[in-house]
Amino acid sequence: SVLDHAFNIVLRQTAGSLVKDAESHADEDKQRRELVENRNMAESLTHQTEKTLEEVGDDAPADDKKAVEEAIADLKSVLEGEDAAAMKEKTDALTQASMKLGEIAYRKAQENAAGTADSDMPDGTTDQAPEGSADDADVVDADFTEVDDSENDEKSA
Question: How far is CA 94 from CA 4, 21, 62, 73, in A?
Fold first, then answer.
């Protein structure tokens, strides 16, 4: 019928229009997604770096701390805007500046772990045998196979 034909024409035009709109907004959507991803990454890095800065404390050289603090301030200043490229640039700068802090924090964690390994038990002893002790000689690697005894019971009955 004429009505069906007219409806199909309108439907095709509308669908074509929607496809064109979607294509024209695809670039905007991509830019918006990039902005959101960069902002999320920047906020996460800022938070983590501030936390590391607190943990490291006075163990970090003053110059390194100052460089990191300035990089954090620079990054926070661009977070309010809509410039994804600037966020990425400042995030990369903070990543570079905070690498030394990460090394210091890692070294500090290793030292703390070594210090607490000596006093795992309440009385200051550890539950590990000293290296080269007789316990080392008792360790044996072996393969084994499970045997299903229910099959043997049926055969003997």
Answer: 62, 39, 16, 10
For 76, the enclosing helix (H) or strand (E) is: helix 62-79
104 or 126, which is more confident: 104
Full-model pTM:
0.56
Identify whether the C-beta of residue 100 lies closer than 8 Å to the C-beta of residue 64.
yes
Asked whether the predicted pLDDT for residue 118 surpasses 80, the reply is no
HSE of 77, CA atoms in CB hemisphere, 13 A: 10
The tens digit of pLDDT for each residue in 55-70 reads: 888 888 888 899 999 9
From the list 105, 115, 112, 111, the residue with the least C-alpha distance to 55 is 105
DSSP state string for 98-115: HHHHHHHHHHHHHHHHHH
